Amino acid sequence: MRANLLGVINLIQEPDELGALTAGRCLAAVPFGGQYRMIDFTLSSMANSGISRVGIFAHTKYRPLIDHLGSGQQWDLHHQRKGGLSIIPPTIRDDCNEVPGGDLVHFFQNRDYFTRNSCEYVVLARSHMLCSVDFKPALAAHLASGADVTVICKQSKDLLGGKARLVEADGDGRITAMQRENGQAESGLISMEMYIMRKELLLDLVITSLAQGQDYLVEHAILSRIEELHMQSYLFDGYVGVINTLPSYYENSMELLRPASWRSLFARHGTIATKLNDEPPARYTEDATTSNSMIANGCIIEGTVMNSILFEGVHVRKGALVRNSIVMQNAVIDMHGVVDHVIYDSGATIGCGRELRKAE
Amino acid sequence: MSKKKMVAMLLAGGEGKRLGVLTQELAKPAVHFGGKYRIIDFTLSNCAHSGIDTVGVLTQYQPLVLNSYLGNGSPWGLDRRDGGMTILPPYVKQKGGKWYKGTANAIYQNIGFIDQYDPEYVLVISGDHIYKMDYELMLEQHEKRGADVTIACLQVDWKEASRFGIMNVDDTGAITSFVEKPKVPVSNLASMGVYIFSWAVLKKYLIRDEANDLSGNDFGKDVIPAMLNDRVRLYSYTFNCYWKDVGTLDSLWEANMDLLAKKPSLDLNDPCRPVYSVSPNRPAHYAAAGATITNSLVSEGCLIEGDVRHSVLFCDVQVGPDSRIQDSVLMPNVKIGKGVRIYKAIICEGAVIADGVTIGSPGSSEVTVIHESVQEGEQPCVQIYSA
């Protein structure tokens, strides 16, 4: 069934502390989990919830993202008659050369994107929340509560090094306070940065807040109205990984090796779709040894792989050892090379007998 | 519609009787192969890599799975405004419909389809074979020789020669004789079922063949011999890479095992010529702490806790702890419980093998085929095919 929901993935000023991983690509395009890019999780969640119109507000380093998304066919979002996928690049205003900073300006400049369709509600999301969410019950809860804004939240026990916004809610789930900045809390109720509201309210907030000199939707427009707006929390009970720092990237990758997390992401709410590369099945030779690892198609395993995630087309040569590591697309670990506690980005190479280990 | 130099006609209606249970509800071209593919992927990918953008797929027997698998042809780059893939089942005409009587009749019934593109050449191929070939090179030779017909061929084992269309050629490569499935073969040069015809010549012979009530309307048995008889210019095109007709369960098992060789003669990993297929979009496979996997192909979505040796695992296969899989082919969604032993078997799509079951025996010369789930303590209902 189609949902009366417009999906918006907001990449303006992504909360990015991923260092070298985002040197040449935006956070949304960072490879994750053997074959995915970060955006696949949010985008697939939307598509699997019957959302047929998704707008991605791109900001910086989005060329790899556009390559990845293509026409949106993998997510069944290439049907332009029903809306489909729109990638909305930042607009540079005629009167200045700068790309404006806050998301409110970008929403305002593209307000016709919002008005030119019949969706009544909008769900805004970011790309750094690793999860598979069904937005249909969230929308139903939004309608039942009569709230102005519903915030999808997670009771988090350990953020694994990620940074998120803490939320306080009363006994009825009504939000009484929200942190302005993302913090590295140990535990608590966090915002998954997914907000459901009426489209008209969003446009209203955009226009009035801009007029008041504000820049950001959540930090300014919503937070400054926390008393006048009825904001309701909606608790999500599946796996959530907050991935915006290198430790959280590493730790959440390793979480995929635990069956419960794996199931919550991949077997709970539809398929996580991604761009496909036509790689053959992974090939193991007679000397291969593997343990507790996720290995994508196209890999050739001649050596040893333990507690690791190998992306498509990785070649682990004879005598090589990959341990506690994440090795991205098409990397070659040469004969007797050792990779231990390493995030190995695509394009990197390690020669015969060389060792890469975590600094002690 | 714009003119095309060459249009491909892919025969995909084969019943594949000798594949037994595998083709009960499936046309042979849709049978799973190589851990990820269906047999037809190879010919469609060949078309894609040979610059052929107009392909008619002739379906007949059990077309449902095949039709939905092919979709609009986009995995093979064949979703085109001009040309692309067209599925051509037999259809009802004013005088009533007719089943495709033979390979030549299937093309005859679609003369109108081919004429839309006004091609110079027609490539006739079969969706039953596994090979990687550049049809453009074959066309180059066809043009250079000024041939009317070019038939791709390869040397086969003399013992197997009587399974194929067997030809004799002179030193220029011209075909001097052609006999379909001869009892006593006079040569071991076998037709691969890959033909390039100059369309004007083929059309004339198709019409003539159709008018002949005694004809079986088959390329190998009727049309090619008639052309040879009339001294039409028929040439051979020699191919010397991997080619396999997986007509039997044995050869299907064997072809899967061929992929596990140290240097397989069919290279699936060649980045320049990948084999395209419809991907199920599943996550990377997971090898658990206790798993052992050697000499095997393992596809996406698999969850391996046991011991997998010299086997081919399709997507979403699960192998429980303390189970051993050896010399076997596990098709999509097969679930293997704990403490299972499987030797030299083909386990069909979706079968569930309960804890403690043993299938086949080590060192067996026979391939065991399981097409239904096996409960705990139950004797599996097997089909055995001797090698």
Overall description:
- The complex is a heterodimer of chains A (360) and B (387).
- The termini of chain A are far apart.
- Chain A has two domains: 5-267, Spore Coat Polysaccharide Biosynthesis Protein SpsA, Chain A, CATH 3.90.550; 283-357, UDP N-Acetylglucosamine Acyltransferase, domain 1 (3 Solenoid), CATH 2.160.10.
- Chain A is α/β, with parallel strands linked by helices.
- Chain A has a seven-stranded mixed β-sheet, sandwiched between helices.
- In chain A, helix 3 (103-109) packs across helix 6 (199-211).
- Chain A is 21% helix and 26% strand.
- Chain B folds into two domains: 6-259, Spore Coat Polysaccharide Biosynthesis Protein SpsA, Chain A (Alpha-Beta Complex); 286-370, Hexapeptide repeat proteins (UDP N-Acetylglucosamine Acyltransferase, domain 1).
- In chain B, the strands form six sheets. In chain B, strands 1, 4, 5, 6, 8, 9, 10, 11 and 12 form a nine-stranded mixed β-sheet that branches. Chain B has a six-stranded mixed β-sheet with strand order 16-19-22-25-28-29.
- In chain B, strand 9 (165-169) and strand 10 form a beta hairpin.
- The mean pLDDT of chain B is 93.
- The interface between A and B is large, with 42 and 35 residues.
- Strand 14 (282-284) of chain A pairs antiparallel with strand 16 (296-298) of chain B, so a sheet runs across the interface.
